[in-house]
## 1
Amino acid sequence: MRPMLERLDRWIHGFLPVSAEGLALSRIFFAAYFLLIGIPTFSWISANPPGFFSPPPLSLAAAFSTFPPEPLLLALDLAICVLLIFLLVGFKTKTTSIALSLAWIVGNSFRFSFGKIDHSIMAVITPAVMAFAGWGARYSIDARGTDNRAEVKAWPLTLLALFLGFGFFSAGLPKLLGWVDFDLSTQGARGWLVSGWHDLSRRRLLAPFFMRIHSPWFWEAMDLSAVAFEVGVLFTLARRTAFRAYLFVAMIFHLLNLLMLNIGFLTLMPVYVVFAPWERMSANGGRARMNGLASYRAMTVALAAFLPLYLLRGRISVDTAANAFSHLGIAADLNGAFDYNWIVTLVVIPAGALIAVALAGSATTAMKAERPAGAGGKRIIFFDGVCNLCNGYVDFLIRRDRRRRLMFASLQSEPGQALERKRRPTSGAGEIDSILLMEADGRVYERSDAVLKVVSALGGGYRLVAVFWIVPRLLRDLIYRLVARSRYRVFGRRDACRLPTAEERVSFL
Amino acid sequence: MAPDRRIRWLFLVLIPCLLLQLRLREITEPYPAILLPAGASLLHSTGDYTAYETELMAVDRDGRRYPFATAALLDAVPSNYYQYVIARGLGTRARDVRKRLGVQFGRPLAPRQIAETKHWLRSKLRSLLDVDAARIDVLTFAVTTTYTTSSPQQRRALARTSSVDLRGDGQ
């Protein structure tokens, strides 16, 4: 029993990595997303007569006999708006997050009192869960004046992953029992398409194309894929890599749903973003800080940007754009069926897909190694000492590393060879295939991970290279390997390993 | 540092609760609950698919009919809830009250609330159509599509008519 409980503890507290910066960025994204896409509002509910009130029997609203009066719902709207802004700037973040979820649940209890429950629960509970993770510990008013060492916890992320997994499982289980019948004459996914087409006029994007597909094999395959996707999620909770790969598949699934069924799953996007490898996007190996003034400036700009977008919300459509074009004398025949939310959907879904690709492809596999003596707490860059390209890169770094935060060693040196033996114990002293970066804690990164981490560590504008973390590591490393393989041929090589000049010696091991 | 055991217990208690929701959904779906939409119905590719469209008409005391858009009457209701409101006689029919395991789920609609709803509907129709409506006729059309051929065939026919009586106080 005890080993099982210990295993459970390891899973709860170590399933997903956390960083204060990553959590903070996901908090900002979450709040900004709803401020931009649409703040949940409930005051409109009170305009309806009591006969329309049919709450879920097991809900808070069931304790009421009719819709609440307008002032109460208006106060709820106002509270949610203020709480979202507080969440964005990180003011009393833990209380704010819990209050936001509670207010949202109360509002939704009444919203879903027309006889139908919409399933946006994951977004609703995310703030309450993440409140305990410490997502207000950075880039926030809360962090101002503290030593920025507020504790962050990993278990809420595990809990959110469990909720997400269970949510999908709850959707997949009835399909598993109903759709997996290996009967080519019954089709579940096609049923969604056809009912959406007729009952809800979901006829945009690729829906007409899929309506023309009559192959029962195709639809049976779609049914089985959907069931495998929704039920299989529980198995992915055993391994971090599997779960992240699942999120990638989830994005493809949602994209397909959008194109085929015209269902956007917009409220799930900010939930997925919580699981994104945000820590990789912050400079200095996830230890970046935004000091007080800079964070206020950023927040002011963010709020100023949201205001016009919010005011324009619902007023922008492709028709509006077409009219604007026609005033300029440019004929634009755009499909008026698309409104603002559709435009946002078409932007948000691919952006989400990109993040998901990064999730699946960017998992670094840093190994740990013993640090060589004499490096202090500095990062060490191990490079190919005979390669002209690598030496050029080292020159570039030395020129810009004015604070001398980096140390260098060639991979042909003794510490370099020791590290290579540990990294590639079976390949022996083969050709050098990658630059290596050793962090202060002994973690070693290679190839494109190492390049990006080193450049962003230079600070200033070089931090912008962090955007390349969004590119899947598989793709980044593929490009790296192509360049690495031809580096001698294209850039040439030295006859002997680089020796540091007297001036450079302080930076070399 | 040893992990906080309270968190372990939180997970151990939550997992059975999550499973319990699945059972509960068969009786009545709770809110809030960690449940996502299932939609497990099947389309029989060898048969027809029938979708239902509703048209609303106000009828005055002389029997004259005045068609109007559902969205105009239910302008404060999201469109995806229309069918549920219409199915309950636009809020003039008793609510679904179920009793399971000795527990009553849901509250019945009081006659006073029904009367208030009828008054609201009449006022709304007066402002929309300038008509003193005695009832609302709900015409349900069945749009049947046959998918057995490569070019689906469609036909539309009146399936049923129901009425929402706007007179009386619902007692």
## 2
Amino acid sequence: MRNKCWKWMAAMLIILVYVGRVIYVTRAYTPEVNRVQPGEYIQLEDCRVCLDSVELYTTESFFEQYPACRELSTYDLARPTMQTAYMLVCNLTVQEEKELENESAYWMEYALNLGYEFFFADFDATLLLTEEEAVDANSEEGAKPLRLVYGIQTGYLSEKRKNALGDEELTLQLQTYPKRQYIELGCMNHSGYHD
Amino acid sequence: MITMFCMEWHRTWHSRYVKLMLLVGGVFAVVSACESFRTHVLFQLQQGSYLQINSSPTTITQVWFGMDISTLFNQLYMLLFPIFAVMPYVATVYEDYKSGYLNQMLIRVERGKYFVARYLVNFIMGGISVITPSVLNLLIGALYAPVSTQIPSNQQSYIVDKSFAAELFYEHVGLYILMYLIIDFVWGGLLACFALVFLDYIRNKYVLLAIPFTINIGIHYIVTYSKVLGELNVDAVVPYSFLNPMQMNVLEPLPVCIITGVILLLSMNEFVVKNLKRDVL
């Protein structure tokens, strides 16, 4: 009887240690999600960014608004396998950074670091910043406006959720890099911001 | 029938075939986990980025051999799948058949119930044997990789929008894995029962055990190298392809369900119904 009790206790201990380890490993990669409203700041490792607005476009209306983007390659904008239906535009202002460089490449890199990809599993994001916009952003004094564009690839979405996208009920999570933060955004669908 | 089922169940666990297959499955799981750890985690440890929130994690689906595209263990597992299924119990059934043990039992118990009990034990043992390495590898993988959703843009899986249950994979990865474990369990049992169809026709134990393996891999290669069948996507209904959680060929639920039903009925007819009608085995 006593032996059996020890066996059960040992088994329970092993299960507890195992479950603890699994939770520890999973939590180690799960950062907090900060909800950011327009006008609020995102504190990254070496800069502070103000989120001015977030706009949601259908692919067609996006190209009407930003015709220069038509010249970019199809792969950059939308991977053909994943049905890009919506474009998300984040208008940001970089407030403080450690150093300024006059090369657009810096901004491109910066932009890539800023909004690396959507974490939300439904979406896959392709980021692009046109050359002209990068130069414009770099030429201004002080605060630097920055526009990030994401293709929201709806291949994984059910019809119900695709409709929800159109109904302006969407919240998105962005993953930043190099310091991994999850930023939750609401969307503006053409006319105004919706939480 | 429950008594007969329990008797066969306990007897099975003392079979050397079951012990052998569980051992082989365990070794397979551990070796593949070690290889996966070496491939995915070792360099992170060397760079000091392992378990650091700043680094992009290698998720459980990337290290589990069911979906790991970086090692060969996935393909090896799918290749050995029928062997894992038939080995534990079909060999025992064959030996009982030939040694006269079955005849001895049948004069003591109710015939129909006995065959149904053996059919059920065969089904369950086939399923358990098949998913043991898979589950063990998953449990080991969870020790060093987070149980979290894979990021689509990582492109570390074949699951795309047209894949079966793609939404489940990207939203609830645990449920996706569980779903495939159940599918593999059921098909492990089915392949084990499928071997029983040939019990009357084949007089060699090893040939009998090799039948599901040969048919499975044979059809797969015929389909792969046949242009016409390839264009018709017939490979999608070959167990070698559709049992793979990686979904290199998209699983087609309807044909798979039909094939499942056919094998189930065929094996039940050959093993249970036919044996019921016979006077002499």
